[in-house]
Amino acid sequence: MKKLIGLTIAGMVLASPVMAQQLPPDTAKPGECYAKVLVPATFRTTTERVLTHVGGEKYTKTPAIYKTVDKRVLVEDESYELIVVPATYEMVTETIMIEPERVVKSVIPATYRTVTERVLVSPARTMWKPGRGAFEKLDSATGEIMCRVEIPAKYTTYSKQVIATPANTTEKTIPAKYATISRRVMKTPPSTEKKIKPAKYKTIQVKELVTPEQFEMIRIEPKYSTIEKREMVNAESVQWRQILCETNTTKDVILKIQKALVRSGYDLGTQPNGNFGPATKAAIRKFQQANGLPTGGLTISTLRKLGL
Which of the residues 98, 141, 154, 262 has the least number of beta carbons within 10 Å of its own beta carbon? Predict the structure, then answer.
C-alpha cells in the first residue's frame, strides 16, 4: 500500500505546471517528504467610484400676471354753445397706451450626449499550463509537459452623460400697445350768450402688470456608480511543500483523512477503508481547489485544513 501511495503522490507532483529545478529546503528533517506543488494565485477586489451623469442647472419660468382694468378717457372737451352765434368745432385724434411694453424670457434647456469609457478590471498575464499530449513531450526524463499561455486582460464598459450645450435664456421685447381715439374740440368760441356743454368720456379696458415674470434655477446633482476591479496580489507559483509519503503515512492516517473528507461533504464512492485509491485522490484535489490550497500533493496545509 505504501508503494501505491508513493506512486500516486509522485503523479500528483508531476501534474505541477513548473518543472522541478531546485531542491527542497535544507531545514527538512530525516523522514520528511517534500514535493513541488501548485500554489494558486491570490486576488483582491477593490471598488472605484465613477461619474455616470454630469450635474448641471435648469430653469423654471413663472409667467407674468396681468389684470384687466377699466380706464376712463376724455372723448369730448367741455364746450360752450352760443345762442346767437354757435361755436365751431373740429375733430382731433389722440393716441393712448392700453398695454405697457414687456420683456418675455424663454429657457433653452441644456443638451446632453452619452459617452462610454472602458475600464481595466484585471491586467493581462501569462502562466504555465500542462501540455496537451505525448507529441509535445521533448524530454522523457522529467515526466512533465509545459506550455506558456497568455491570459488576456479583462475590461468593463460603462456609460455616462456629459453636457453638449449648456442651458441659457433668451429675451424678447413685446412692444407696448396703443389705441387711437378721436374727440371734438372747440375751434372758435361763441361770440354771444354761451350755453355750457359738459365734456364726454369713454371707458376702455387696459392690461396692468400685477406680478412680473420670474425665473428659478434648480441645480441637478451629478450621479456616480461604483464598479469592482479584481487585482492579483500573488501570482500562481510552484513551491516546495511538505507532504505525506510512504515514510510517514499509514493506513490509519489515510482512514482519518477519508473520514475528514466525508465530514466535509466529499463522496469517496465507498465507506472510508484506509486505501488510498483514485476516488480518495480526486476528493483531496477537489478539497484543495475549493479551499484555495496548493495542489499536486498531500500537503501538511491540507491536513491542517481537514482538522488533522
Answer: 141
> Helix, strand or coil for residue 100?
coil
State the distance between the two ends of the chain, measured CA to CA, in whole angstroms.
21
- Reported as a single tens digit per residue, the pLDDT across 244-264 is 666 667 788 888 888 888 888
**What average pLDDT does the structure give for the chain?**
76
Res. 139: pLDDT tops 80 = no
* β strands within the chain, DSSP E: 33-39, 42-53, 56-62, 65-76, 79-82, 88-99, 102-108, 111-122, 125-130, 146-151, 154-165, 168-174, 177-188, 194-197, 200-211, 214-220, 223-234, 237-243
Encode burial over 47-57: b for 16+ CB neighbours within 10 A, e otherwise: eeeeebbeebe
- CB-side neighbour CA atoms (13 Å) of 99: 12
Residue found under cell 494565485: 41
The candidate with the shortest Cα–Cα distance to 189, out of 90, 83, 80, is 80
Residue corresponding to grid cell 511538505:
242
- Enter the C-alpha cell of residue 235: 501570482
Q: Are 82 and 240 a contacting pair, CB within 8 Å?
A: no
Cell readout for 201 is 368720456
Q: How far apart are CA 42 and CA 122, in angstroms?
A: 13
Kindly state the DSSP code that residue 295 receives in the 8-state scheme.
Answer: B
Cell matching residue 222: 451629478
